[in-house]
Design brief:
Blueprint lengths: L1 E3 L5 E3 L1 H8 L3 E3 L4 E3 L13 H19 L4 H12 L3 E3 H7 L4 E2 L3 H8 L3 E4 L2 E4 L14 H9 L2 H20 L5 H19 L5 H18 L5 H18 L12 H27 L5 H5 L3 E4 L6 E6 L2 E7 L11 E8 L2 E6 L3
Parallel strand pairs: 1-3, 2-4, 3-6, 11-13
Antiparallel strand pairs: 4-5, 7-8, 9-10, 9-12, 10-11, 12-13
């Protein structure tokens, strides 16, 4: 017994063949069956000869499954292969492609009660009224694998993974972002191996993150970041939402746009910090000494010693400055080798 459920479900592609192979078949209201034309592993069309051979083989298979049904059912089954025709639950029941339309499992069992199916050993009448049902839950591993094959989850893992790897490459030395990126990319790779994806979209995603990184290294006032957001959105849509991809394997368009904008904003913030750091005055080396204040440890007239920070320097009065007494605060004017030229602070 094959039951297409819940409402909104679609027994498409291989699901059509599986449904027809059952000794009895039922569909919930607002479900569909069909669109089973053969395609390649990535959803692409087959070559002419290969397509003809595959279609003929599949039509022969569904004919063998539906030969006990009405001629209209056999014709519809063949059309799902030949022209990717799909039918609603009502249409499928009307031509006899399925046996029941059931609202839920209880309704299905009530309708099946007394129904006769043809087994290899002969006809058998089902007695299902009041039958006890037992739900077999998925194991923890199966639940995890189901999550990892959700296109939205795969997209998020891919985005986080690539971003973390680029952050690690742009500022090496740590390991957290690199490790996180590697784990996310490995999990995303598993999901993409199961889903129908267009790998060309990955090129656009990589270009997007390269543009983000370049804009950090050589700020262009957001031009490259804006281009990166566009490339990111296009890449995600090409990767997961190419023509021919089943609806349940498509990534949410609002999610793609949201993640693209958030990623762009993140890199925009990083660019802002980078620009601010470039404009910040130098605080190390000789350049960093200029403008610092210290204490005169001896009289300076015209030379003496001052303490600037934790270091003791030989100092000389800057040109045109008056003598400085011991204990007075001084300001560094210039650094000349290991000597400072100073003046009284506040002047």
């Amino acid at each position: 017994m094959v039951y297409v459920s819940p409402r909104g479900a679609w027994a498409a592609s291989a699901g059509t063949v599986i449904t027809l192979a059952g000794h009895a078949a039922a569909m919930a209201p607002e479900t569909a069956i069909g669109a089973a034309s053969p395609v390649g592993g990535q959803g692409e069309n087959l070559a002419s000869t290969e397509e003809t051979k595959t279609k003929e083989a599949m039509k022969a298979l569904v004919r063998s499954y539906t030969e006990r049904r009405r001629p209209e059912a056999v014709a519809l089954a063949e059309e799902t292969i030949e022209s990717a025709k799909a039918a609603s639950a009502t249409e499928a029941l009307r031509v006899g492609l399925v046996d029941f339309i059931a609202n839920d499992l209880e309704d299905l069992l009530n309708q099946l009660d007394g129904y006769t199916v043809q087994m290899a050993s002969g006809p058998r009448t089902l007695h299902t009224a009041g039958a006890i049902t037992e739900e077999v839950p998925m194991s923890l591993i199966e639940q995890l694998l189901e999550i990892l094959t959700n296109p939205n989850i795969v997209f998020l893992l891919l985005s986080i993974g690539v971003q973390a790897i680029f952050i690690e490459l742009s500022s090496p030395g740590g390991w957290v972002s690199g490790f996180l990126g590697a784990v996310c990319l490995a999990l995303a790779a598993y999901g993409m191996g199961v889903l129908s994806v267009n790998w060309f979209g990955l090129v656009f995603l990589i270009i997007a993150f390269v543009l983000f990184i370049v804009d950090i290294k050589a700020p262009t006032h957001g031009a490259l970041t804006t281009a990166g957001i566009g490339s990111f959105i296009v890449g995600a849509l090409v990767l997961f939402n190419s023509p021919g991809t089943p609806q349940f394997q498509r990534v949410s368009l609002p999610l793609v746009i949201l993640v693209g904008i958030l990623t762009g904003l993140l890199f925009a913030v990083i660019i802002g910090f980078a620009l601010r750091a470039q404009k910040r005055p130098v605080i190390t080396g000789q350049e960093g000494m200029r403008g610092q204040t210290g204490i005169a440890r001896t009289d300076i007239d015209p030379t003496g010693q001052v303490q600037a920070g934790s270091e003791l320097w030989t100092a000389e009065l800057a040109q045109g400055c008056k003598a400085i007494r011991r204990g007075e605060r001084v300001e560094v004017v210039t650094v000349e080798g290991l000597h400072l030229r100073v003046r009284k602070a506040g002047k």
